Amino acid sequence: MAFDVAAIRGQFPALGDGWIHLDAPAGMQVPEQVATAVSTALRAPVSGPGGVFPASQRAEAIVDAARRAVADLVGCDPAGVVLGPNPAVLLQRLAEAMGSGWVIADEVIVSRLDHQQNIAPWLGVAQRAGATVRWAEIDIETCELPAWQYESLISHRTKVVAVTAASGVVGTRPDLSKITTLAHDANALVVVDASSSAPFVPMDIRAMGADVVAVSATAWGGPTVGALAFADPSLLERLPACSLGPNQSGPARMELGQHAYPLLAGLVASIDYLAGLDDAASGSRRERLQTSIGSAKSYQAGMLGKLISELRGLLHVTVIGDAMRRIPALAFTAADVKASRAIVHLADRGICAFADDGPSGVFGALGVAEVGGAVRIGLAHYTTSAEVDALVEAVAALSSLT
Q1: Strand arrangement of the beta sheet that strand 317-319 belongs to
Q2: In DSSP terms, which residues pair with 317 in a beta bridge?
């Protein structure tokens, strides 16, 4: 492993602000090469696709490069990569397309662990069709999403199983292989939201057993664009098109309006950045991505283990959940200190973190609002051990606020 966090930090101009950025679940900071790629594309002549002149051909080349980059990240065919503004919009389009033929007897399965972007679209489509929504529940003690419950949830009426690859709130990584196997045995399609896991876990769409995977470039320091990756590109041809143009084929069937070409150029640069996280990574971009993200995973696992251990050693702090497999994100509560007050205390010490006391999602299922909410943090590729130590010190001092 050749994961040099000091060299990685040198690629992020934003880290010069002096703050400790433990707000990665909301999106990582942007590397210099991504900002340069976007600004370079903004300065270059770019037109709409379909022309025979250079500006038009440049637009087509950017879109093609973006599809190939996402395909390398996810392990799919570029012909199955749909590009768009963010996963929420793309998952809404996907749900509307998949649910257009549903009837009252049909069912869709969603989970309490998922982000709303992979729940709300399916709820809306099911409601309009009169289809049944079935919920996979989380284990309150561990925040695991037990795979065994899908044995009773999935039936021959199940059309779609929507599930997250990892929670950006409590870090849990469900057992996707078992869930997807059960779904496919019932001829159901599986839609996996990998927005939170993509920067931390090497991906292979077929090994995951997913039919469609959603990713968000902001999760790893890319621009505000997202993508859907289809394991089988032919599925696109079987879904109703939502594009404005007639007779569209392939990914264009689910792409609405003109692409943001400079942002797609930044998307390519951001995936190249991921492929270079490990200085020793070699081979194709796909191979370098697997090596680099694997190295980052190992580096962050050590820090996360230390952080959780030290937080649990504080008598006034409760770390939420105890999942066996996780990404470097977690939430905690502090006795007699509301989360909204705790994050102000952390901000006073130069630490970026979020509070959540909402009645929905994972915390709604856990009843966290009743104890004043939870503080959410997440590690990034550029997080250092010294920053983790600073967080622990700041959280320890929360006891003085009671």
Answers
A1: 317-319, 329-334, 374-378, 354-356
A2: 334
What is the three-class DSSP state of 241? coil
Question: From residue 318, how far is each of 168, 197, 225, 372, 389 by CA, in Å?
Answer: 18, 24, 35, 13, 17
Q: Dig out the tokens for 263 from the structure.
A: 């942002």
For the residues of 151-172, what is the DSSP string, one character each?
HHH--TTEEEEEEESS-TTT-B
The rounded distance, in Å, linking the Cα atoms of 274 and 219 is: 11
Pseudo-torsion of CA 304, 308, 313, 319, nearest 10°? 160
CA dihedral sign, ordered 81, 213, 28, 357: positive
324: left (phi over 0), alpha (psi -120 to 50) or beta: alpha
Q: From CA 298, how far away is CA 306, in angstroms rounded?
A: 13
Q: Report yes or no: 199 and 219 within 8 Å, Cβ to Cβ.
A: yes
Calculate ∠ Cα 177-192-170, nearest 5°: 90
CA distance 101 to 112: 25
The tens digit of pLDDT for each residue in 74-121 reads 999 999 999 999 999 999 999 999 999 999 999 999 999 999 999 999
Question: What whole-number distance in Å separates Cα of residue 179 and Cα of residue 163?
Answer: 9
Distances (CA, A) of 254 to 24, 175, 236: 29, 29, 8
Strand ranges of the sheet holding 132-136, from the earlier edge strand across to the other edge: 81-84, 226-230, 212-216, 189-193, 158-164, 107-111, 132-136
The predicted model scores a pTM of 0.95
